[in-house]
Amino acid sequence: MEKIIPPGMRSSLERNRSAMNSIFEFHRSVNREPDYDDILLMFYRIISPVYERGREFADDLLCGIFDSVLKLCGKGYIGRGGRFPAVEDLFFTMLNSFGDLLTAQKDFPVVLFNALFNVYQKSEEAMKDWGDKMPLLSCSDDFESFRKKGFILAWRLGVARYRERALELIDSLSADDIRKIFEPENFNNDDTEEFISSLKINLWKNPGNISAEAKPVFLFTDGFRGYGGHFSNIPSVFSSDGELYAADGDAVFRIYADIFGVELVHEPEMVQVKKNRSDAGLVYGSTGEIILNGRSTPLPEFCRGDIRSSASAGQTIAWTVNSSYKIFIAGIVAGHG
Amino acid sequence: MIRGGGMEEHNSLGKVSQSPTVPGKVHGRRKFDIADLYNKPVSTGEEKPGESYGLDEKLRKAYFWVANYAIINPFCDIEYNETSPNRYVIGDNKTGLTLATGQSYASFILLPLLTLVTRKKCLLVGGPGRGKTSSAMIMGLLAGYSMKDIKRAVQHGQPQMTVSDLLGNPLPSDMVNARSMDEIQIAWRRWLGMKVKIIDEYNRIPARTQSALLNVMSENYAELLDQVYDCPEAAWYLTANDDAGGGTYQVIEALKDRIDIVVSALHFNTRFLKDLLDRVERGIKPEEMIPDEIIFTEEEIEQINREILEVEIPEKLMRRIEYFASQFELLESGGEQFEYKTKDNVKLSGESISQVMQGETGKDQLKDLSYQTLNGLSVRAFMTCLTFIKALAYFRGNECADFSDVRHILPFVLHDKLAQNSDSPFFEQPENAVYKYDRISWIRKLFDLSCAEYDRAGLDKKDPVGELLASFTKGLDGVTETEAAQKLQQIEKMIGDISAGRKIYAPQFDDILTLKYLHQRYTNYLSWLKWKK
To answer: What is the pTM assigned to this prediction?
Structure first.
């Protein structure tokens, strides 16, 4: 099938022909030989909807987008060599939805792709949720707003490593944003400040229902490398300077966990075990229970077994069992058990 | 070659072979250009069957369809060899026959096809009934026109043809009512707007009408009663019969000069008479069965045009073409001032170039190629040669033109542009007499002789004028006074060396003028530097 070039697009491309050809030659010299038709098609898919709506790109922006396409295609993220079709599909859909940002922000395609990819690392479902919710967050014409809300939403959907940064940005959220991102029950606009404060204080409090009784939260993550996990050997957990880590002898991963989810992030350097005194509790595998803040709670079935290792940091406990490659997490709101 | 077996042939007429025309050829873009995004519709990746190849492959498929099905033309006069071919000597004249070992082509089909995609002007010559008009019509069909449109649009030259017959008529009501020429509307002839224009028997058009035709051919617009019609870029096909049929006119020189390439319709090979009879008996009309896959859209032709221009002519090959082209202009006794020592100067004075050349002594008129022609080459001829050389290389699926491409194209482009000096001693040699009739072979011979001379002089390795020119082309920015003075000395020494040789030959003519030009530029630059101080 063939499509016709929208009016306006031709003159923009003609004007920037020399610059874009030079950009191409640069990428060709540093990356593998690009697929010419593929590059053109990807570029066309991004810019043509804008021109079809009667809008135009500034010259430097157009060149910037072309550069982004070459980068993304060169690394095998989009195009014929694209390794993540789900991400790519959502990428083009969202570029269409955020046309204002596309025509205003030079590196928007790369930023968007990175965001999608990062959430995709959590899960495809989380990425799709992110893609569905972002257009509802009133940030289609403000890049900073897009970036902040996108970050917070990603955290909300389980990209746990974003927590710290998200909490720095969360004050900028309106009541409406909070409602859309966190979907709290019985939430009034007046509750905004309290809600945000609660999130900052309580790693494990369910923001969907602040008034509900806080119960321990049990999560697990990861597994054998052969099945898409991180570990080639059964891992052990440990704590250091108030943070939790998992290691299998080949690599070390920092554990990020909160009410929204858990993630493992590779630590490039060796981490020394340093336990803190104010740990939340201990795990007793043989009795199938866990002591959190001095109170005993039965372990869910999925995380029982012979305890191989355990560690705690703050209100979070992590442990592993001899029969599994998974990392098990329990968290409790401070003062509860 | 034409296959026998009527029904089988009939059924296969409407099909194009899916196997590649050049096995092993990888199709792909030669050079990235963002312009490809706006110069043609963008493919969204959903390919139609049979469209997974490049346009050069489509062009080849079109050629082979025409050669195998449309026209009974079992000739391969454009020969290419991949390995050393077998050669035979045949007849009293000891004519060489080569059995080509590479894919070879019929000029009568290939060159009109290249004309179509380069939008040039092709003259088809030959006796009556040899398929000249048919060949032109097939090109029109390949461009997407219907047979009905083409037949109606062919302009048939005849002695009573007027300008109005050719271009159009003013609306009668406007003629009566108009108060000024601006108000007259013209009903322009439909053929003016077509992208394939066919003029049948153009040498039967009277001189006055030829002038109107010249306007359209050269400037791409038609003018009548102060009204102008801008014609689109088009491929032109003109046919001409010989004079034996009568009713012909002298074609004006300017019109002849606008012809880009001349192709001869060769005789019908009688061994294929049966195939012809088959077609007549079964009513097979290839022009009604052109497969869709080989019809070119306007955008495709434009794209092919662009791709052709990207074909490279290597520098060393370019140098040989330059050397060949420089052989013909010099006529030492044609003027006193150096720049005017040209055949053109003598021609403008009305004198006979041949006689002036005969009066020259001191040079070997047998070996000096310059004495074989009555003129040099125009800029237009150069450009046409280069375009067709690239087009032929493109057709063959190559990114660079090669020596054979040049050797094949030059004779057809220069066929009517290089006027032969039949009084030259060269043609008096018994073995060369045949070149008086066979212009294609003559021009090819000229090129071969030029290349032999080029090799003998070792010009591939030493080209001091070329080096000076290349140095100059880099620009004068940053060139110091000393460097400029050194250049001047170098130029003066080179001219001194040529002067010491006493004789000047045609290729040196352009070299000397180039040196003079460079001397002038460096002199001016030096003056400027001194003034700046």
So the answer is: 0.61
